Amino acid sequence: SSFLHTLWSFNLYAEHPAVYGGPSGSYFGYSVDFYQASTDSNTISVLVGAPKANTSQPGIVEAGAVYYCPWSGPPDSCRQIPFDNSNNRMMKVNGTREPVEFKSHQWFGASVRTHKGKVVACAPLYHWRTVKLSADKEPVGTCYVAVQNFSAYAEYSPCRTNDPDPEGQGFCQAGFSVDFTKEGRLVVGGPGSFYWQGQVMTAGIAEILNGYSLKAMLRQVPGEKHTRAAEDTHDDSYLGYSVAVGEFTGDSEQELIAGVPRGAQNFGYVAMINSTNLTFIQNFTGEQMASYFGYAVAVTDLNGDGTDDVLVGAPLYMEREMESKPREVGRVYLYLQMAPLTFSKPVALTGTHTFGRFGTAIAPLGDVNQDGYNGMLRVKECREWK
Ligand SMILES: *[C@@H]1O[C@H](CO)[C@@H](O)[C@H](O)[C@H]1NC(C)=O
Ligand SMILES: *[C@@H]1O[C@H](CO)[C@@H](O)[C@H](O)[C@H]1NC(C)=O
Ligand SMILES: *[C@@H]1O[C@H](CO)[C@@H](O)[C@H](O)[C@H]1NC(C)=O
Ligand SMILES: *[C@@H]1O[C@H](CO)[C@@H](O)[C@H](O)[C@H]1NC(C)=O
Ligand SMILES: *[C@@H]1O[C@H](CO)[C@@H](O)[C@H](O)[C@H]1NC(C)=O
Ligand SMILES: *[C@@H]1O[C@H](CO)[C@@H](O)[C@H](O)[C@H]1NC(C)=O
Ligand SMILES: [Ca+2]
Ligand SMILES: [Ca+2]
């Protein structure tokens, strides 16, 4: 079955790994994606996030960075991509010039994603001063996009708005998760909005680049769509902790998939969201309380039948064997799409190492060995990365 295939091809792929290095203590490798400058270029490279790396930004400590690593190059061939060279912006507040943003320790590069030459990377712990007179620093998060092989950049900070505080978008942490639709529209998760109900937004890259100015701190990108605050029973559920995109309704319009790992009374769930009007369509619900079901999500055609399938990670899943202590091993659930909006019962893959947090990250690698299946997966388990 394609399911076994997934496991075996994993070993095959690990035989000749490409190895890259970054500054020690920079968390180099926290996020990765493949990058192809354009569809007609046959060189593939790897983008590697290092969210605690120092940069050349004056006066800023450990802003975080994304590295460009040629494939396949020597381990020291990676170079920082200059998404943002600038210091904290200043503004005249109450008669004195003060910084209005705080880029030190912002975790830039915690997420990075590519789509046909477009790149997005985010800093979910970017803080700004808020619109209030009393200077509150709030972790709204921010993202930068790059196009034309890193010759044009723009910032996109959808939660830096005039709706601050925990009840608004002040603690949003936009860019905690990020993805692209097949048309190249950006999908951003911000799990801290609205007392940590969380939020998902989408925006077009062309609209983000058009009329972009460093001076516009508060900017509404034309055509941006976002989910809204719900009743307070949804507080602390973290919608947007993870995001992905796929087609699940039998038409050509893709749906959004978003993890809500503390929703559904802490069982966690994954929401399917209409990408046209951002309303909720249906849920996949977790199996075990506090397992963090929805910590990671991925979409790929696992069985090669032409339909998108869904994978969900629950890295804190505990295995309970009879008469023994529960072991925290983590689980990944596979949902095969049988028909529009109809899925198989989930198949569970369980981690083997206690505290290995199997399912922390799931990355479809596509049909790397050209056998017609997208069965190649990289499922992150902590031991593998030490
Ligand atoms: C970044 O620079 C600061 C100050 O120079 C230093 O203390 C810190 O260890 C550096 N961090 C990394 C990850 O290189
Ligand atoms: C604005 O400046 C005045 C005069 O320096 C000061 O009394 C007041 O507290 C300041 N207000 C805020 C909100 O910082
Ligand atoms: C794209 O940018 C990278 C990094 O700056 C550079 O090494 C590469 O040669 C560029 N590729 C093309 C096709 O221009
Ligand atoms: C999504 O919303 C649009 C706009 O209301 C609607 O036309 C479409 O049928 C919806 N799709 C699904 C799958 O509900
Ligand atoms: C979104 O689309 C769905 C499906 O067509 C519809 O039921 C719902 O009312 C729409 N919501 C909004 C806010 O337009
Ligand atoms: C998804 O689950 C949440 C939490 O149980 C619930 O509030 C919501 O109504 C569900 N949505 C759908 C579309 O079933
Ligand atoms: Ca659809
Ligand atoms: Ca399929």
Automatic annotation (TrEMBL):
InterPro entries: FG-GAP, Int_alpha_beta-p, Integrin_alpha, Integrin_alpha_N. Its main location: membrane. One of its GO terms (molecular function) is integrin binding. Gene3D superfamilies: Integrin alpha, N-terminal (2.130.10.130). One of its GO terms (cellular component) is integrin complex. It is a single-pass type I membrane protein. SMART domains: Int_alpha (SM00191). It is found in: Membrane. FG-GAP repeats lie at residues 11-78, 94-155, 160-212, 279-344. This is Integrin, alpha 8.
